[in-house]
């Protein structure tokens, strides 16, 4: 999917955003994911959130993360973490988020559909998911947790579930919490990779 200057103007992007886009892509067009990657590098999470909200997800796009650390991670479509990852600030995905191990963000975690982790999930602020949230170990958020926020249809009851080994911190503002219990060998860290069993696909 391409982001163009005409599209941004049609969506009534702010003047600052128009100037930023023109300076970085003077030809007037750029790949959606490339724009989000640049916004992550330039520490512009508000612009990334605006783009994802107003343009919507690219349902064919998949971004795979293989580096253990980053400041921000933004994805136009599906976001897959291939390793245990710790993000300094925010994680935002137009579609779902999947991780074979743990997900940790210093700020918020947001997904257009579901969030699934093979071990734990930890957010320094809130967690928002269009569909369900599932993790094997602890779920922790400094603020509120929302599941089933999708606006394109009414979610099924299972798509509003927040299933985790244990809710360590956070207030469930939307969704149904199910605590499944922690395995005896699970550590306290939400990024513990001991629980790496393949779970049911959400997407």
Describe the structure.
This protein is of the alpha/beta class. The protein has 2 domains: 2-55, no CATH class; 62-179, no CATH class. The protein has 4 helices and 19 strands. It has helices at 5-10, 15-24, 32-41, 45-55, and strands at residues 2-4, 29-31, 62-65, 69-70, 73-75, 78-81, 85-87, 91-93, 97-99, 103-105, 109-111, 115-117, 121-123, 127-129, 133-135, 138-147, 161-164, 166-174, 176-179. The strands form 3 sheets. Strands 4, 5, 7, 8, 10, 11, 13, 14, 16 and 18 form a 10-stranded parallel β-sheet that branches. The longest helix has 11 residues, at 45-55. It is globular and about 55 Å long.
Whole-number total of structural domains: 2
Shape verdict:
globular
Cα-atom Rg, whole angstroms?
Answer: 17 Å
The largest sheet, given as strand count, sense and whether it forms a barrel, is: 10 strands, parallel
Low-pLDDT windows of residues: 188-203
The end-to-end span amounts to 20 Å
The helicity comes to: 10-25%
Q: Structural class, from helix and strand content?
A: alpha/beta
The fraction of residues in strands falls at 35-45%
The number of helices is 4
Pattern of helices and strands: EHHEHHEEEEEEEEEEEEEEEEE
Mean pLDDT metric: 90
Number of strands: 19
